[in-house]
């Protein structure tokens, strides 16, 4: 059994923001797999199960995501090597994705929380959202996509979902960085 976690913030005010790209990728993968999310109050998460995969979106605040992840991990009795977390990363350029096991949070509060609760030896699938040097990091990650950015990020989300789906269905994982090219029309 593999647990795939998408990080994001709940609430309409966060929809289509950079910080919710983890939710959007997990939504896309679960739709491809034909899984439907239901709210599980015990886990404080939306959960979808299908064919040996559990998809989860913590309903806690981003910086408390580790609580939900630990509840899910303990209930299903899986090791960290079967946990895959997808999140935004402002340290990566837009369109760059990085897949690796272990390491630091890179300043991501959701990953910080997961590391505190279960340790750091789980897989991360980070999706580059870039950064605006003239803007506060918190304001930047919570900012909604402009219409032009939305088209680009929809493409990145689709490509990221395809890449992550291929990675999680393999038995032999290796760290990798992949650049997603923008669609022709952007």
Word description of this protein:
The protein is an alpha/beta fold. It has a single domain, classed as Rossmann fold (3-Layer(aba) Sandwich). The chain has 5 helices and 8 strands; from the N terminus they run E-H-E-E-E-H-E-E-H-E-H-H-E. It has helices at 21-33, 65-76, 109-118, 137-142, 147-168, and strands spanning 2-6, 38-40, 45-50, 53-58, 83-89, 96-101, 123-128, 176-179. It has an 8-stranded mixed β-sheet with strand order 2-3-4-1-5-7-6-8, sandwiched between helices. Helix 1 (21-33) packs across helix 5 and helix 2 (65-76) packs parallel to helix 3. The N and C termini lie far apart (38 Å). 38% of the residues are buried. The mean pLDDT is 91.
Question: How do the strands and helices of this protein lay out in sequence?
Answer:
Elements: E1 2-6, H1 21-33, E2 38-40, E3 45-50, E4 53-58, H2 65-76, E5 83-89, E6 96-101, H3 109-118, E7 123-128, H4 137-142, H5 147-168, E8 176-179
Parallel strand pairs: 1-4, 1-5, 5-7
Antiparallel strand pairs: 2-3, 3-4, 6-7, 6-8
Helix pairs in contact: 1-5, 2-3
List keywords for this structure.
Rossmann fold, alpha/beta, 186 residues, 8 strands
